[in-house]
Amino acid sequence: MFLRLLAACFTLVVAACATPTLQAQPGTLVIVGGGLEPDNEEVFKAFLDVRPADARAIAIVPAASGAPSQAANDFRKALINFGADPENIRIVELAMLDDPQTAEIDEAEWTGGAKDAAEIAKIAEAGAIWFTGGDQSRLTQLLIEDDGRETPMLAAIRERLNIGAVVGGTSAGAAIMSDPMITQGDTLAALLPDAPGEAVRFDRGLGFLNNLLVDQHFGERARLGRLAALLTHERQPHRIGIGIDENTAIKVTAGDTEALVLGTGYVTLLDARGAARGSGTRFAVRGMSLSLASSGDRISLADGRIEPAPFKKATIGNEYFGRATVSGGGMALGATSLAEVAGEALLDNSAARKVERQSFSGAHGVTYRFIQTDASQGWWGRPPEGRAAYALSAVRFDIEPLDIIMKKAEN
Where does the record locate the signal sequence feature (predicted)? Predict the structure, then answer.
């Protein structure tokens, strides 16, 4: 009996050693579409408040910036304004370019920071890690080896996220969240032959957010078309993309499929899984599904379903407008934002089931077509403090090419 009891005790001890009693919890991503204002309490609090209780340190990685010290110090000041302890904030010395604002420091000497033990230690102690804006390619060049292996610093960041830290970033710091990531590109150049602007390109990202393509400065730079072009690109694996406006963020638990929207603008989810790209030489796509969300809404990153903020009420069946829509484009036509076109003119308008807008450059153009389907849903509301906003889901979105012929009218 004694030997059996001893054996049982030994088995329990071995099992306890082999199986941790506390499972590590995944961390949180706070992804900002750029243009983060220093007074955006909703976003800053979201970043600060989810730090683990036993890891209050904050690491700022300014590698994407052309003025790394200035970018890091600006973010540091904003954190302090929202209650962060200055003693907890560390600036990680990782950069490619010298900051002209700091004559006493040559930040171009920080290129080896991703392998420096002292800099990696700043990450290893952090409960929050932030990537500033700038050029996302600088970040990947510094954090990924030439042979494709992750640097020790990137491995440390991933480990911190996996055990509960919050990782956030703005602009370039948002682009790197997906893999591949968008590195450049203008919408008209993506959609039209011979249009001026940068060609759309993508490259390896850091992939903290799985199975999704992230775009930023979305509404401000009219990037809906470029996201549509990339989501239907044959060499780009993801068919769902999310576009985040400036001063706007999503907060998502790592590994989860639902995001909370924060800030002043909109978040657009575009689903191309059921879409058909045209087979001609000109870009065309039919059957994409579009959703739109704003502060307080929750959006499914898997299919674009919206859980609207409590203050928003359904628009379909309670439409505020009942007027014929105008098809066109340009400065003489009002209400051209995505929320106004797909929200106000379509899902909040009993007289419309389809809205079209045109854009062109030279002799070529495109029609953006938004269609209300039986699955479409819309909401509108105004929070106790703040601006009224729409939320939309399952709006069909097509892009078709146009040829433009213009001549001066007789007058």
Answer: 1-24
